[in-house]
Amino acid sequence: MENGTVNLHIADHIGSIEFFHPQSNSLPGALLNKLAETITEAGNNDDIKVIVLRSAGNKAFCAGASFDELIAIKEFAAGQQFFSGFAKVINAMRKAPKFIIARVQNKAVGGGVGIAAAADYTFAVKDASVKLSELAVGIGPFVVGPAVERKLGTSAFTALSINATEWRSAQWAYEKGLYAELFDDEAAMDESIQKLAQKLGKSNPEAMMMLKKVFWEGTDHWDTLLTERAGMSGKLVLSEFTVNAINSFKSK
Fold first, then answer.
1. Range of the domain at 101
2. 179: domain CATH number?
3. Could you tell me which of 156, 120, 136 has the C-alpha nearest to residue 70?
4. How far apart (Å, rounded) are the C-alpha atoms in residues 34 and 47?
5. How far does Cα 58 stand from its chain's mean position?
6. Predicted structure pTM score
7. Closest listed residue to residue 132, CA positions, set 71, 62, 203
8. pLDDT digits (tens, 9 = 90+) for 153-193
């Protein structure tokens, strides 16, 4: 449990993937790899027609990557590998031949915003505010940037990236297109998720697969792009400025 979990449950052609880490769902590299692998597994399972992606616990939906791993990075290769974690998850979501519904039950930070953006249809509650905090610790939202910009547009992505210490409300995220539907509480959200998932579970899988290809047209280069972006953060994390910023952040 201290290292987190990723579980896949299948029922009525719905593949529910749940991830969890006790540190507010901040995800270490091993857990990100497992999540990417599980998404790919669900995408290739013929019994699954739609994927629901969710996190466990009552804290953040996802607080981004693990800071414990981040502060231990001492060389470029390790930095690039670390920041490639969310690249693997986003690319797995992008390439999965099934629609992915995301369930955002609380705040999303950094990579968590990237996951919400990479989903094909995202449900959230009114407390699910968002923040791209990377610049505040001396790096930038390079890896998640393409997914966030694709869903919200350049203007909203720029605002999130530059004003890196401020939360944006769930209502703001809904109005910008990150969230497809917004709810007062989890019970109402879960009811709507189940209703849509059941409908999709009975829909034509070939039609849904073709639609997904249309939705993600023009992103075939992301395998290379996101790895290159991971290298940008991997380089910055070694700088004296970023090391000092991270240590200052950790001491708060």
1. 5-201
2. 3.90.226.10
3. 136
4. 20
5. 17
6. 0.95
7. 62
8. 999 999 999 999 999 999 999 999 999 999 999 999 999 99
